[in-house]
Fold VOC family protein.
Amino acid sequence: MLTIGSVVIRCADVDRQLRFWTEALDYEPRLPMDDDFAPLRPRSGPGPNVSLDAAPSERTLPPRIHLDLYADDQAAEVARLERLGAQRVHWPKRPADADYVIMQDPEGNRFCVIDTRQGAAA
C-alpha cells in the first residue's frame, strides 16, 4: 500500500517559504532540516508533510501539479493568505460559479483555496 508522505515544493529561498508555509498551513519544521531542505509537518493531527527544497527549477504555467487547500471560510482564508504574502491569480477561463480561488505563494508556486461549504461558490 502507498500513501502520500510529502509534497515537495521547489523554491529559491527556503527561509522565506518556510515562514509562509508554516503560517499558511499551521505546520512546523520537522527536524533535522538544513539550509537546502526543510520538511514541514502538521502542528496537530495527521496529514501529509510539505517539504521545501532549494533546487533550481523553471516555473511552467500552467503548473503540472498544484495544491488544493480546503477552507470552511474561503474569504477569510484568502485574506489571511494575502496578508502572509500570497497573491490571487487571475484566470480568464475560471467559471463565475467556481468554488476555488487560484493563488500563488511568494515565489509564484500556484495553489487553490477551495470553498468546502456545501453548495458554496466563490
